[in-house]
Write a structure and sequence with these properties.
Length: 101
């Protein structure tokens, strides 16, 4: 099952492909399924938001859990852009390069 870190890595990949470095929520929801191995649990219908799959909650949790150890905002790889999505940082770009992207 993909977890929050997997989704955050997908967000970084989406953001890195944009000239402004921003992965909008809309673009992330469209592109992450091709970038992250989502299983049936990730793709199942949300119990609290029936119009979306469970992995969308993980996308929102990147911001919600920004103070948690290991969170990509807390580490400095991403910046939350209110009502738009996330922006990749220089540290995030360096991390992608180190991972071979």
């Amino acid at each position: 099952m993909a977890d929050e870190s997997d989704i955050a890595l997908g967000v970084m990949l989406v953001a890195n492909s944009q000239s402004n470095g921003i992965a909008t929520f809309h673009r992330s929801k469209k592109e992450i399924p091709a970038l992250v191995n989502l299983d049936n649990q990730n793709l199942s219908q949300s119990l609290t938001r029936p119009s979306e799959p469970m992995w969308h909650q993980l996308l929102r949790n990147i911001k919600s859990h920004y103070q948690a150890d290991g969170n990509y905002i807390q580490i400095g790889y991403l910046i939350h852009v209110p009502r738009r999505g996330y922006q990749i940082t220089k540290a995030g770009k360096a991390k992608l390069k180190a991972l071979g992207y």
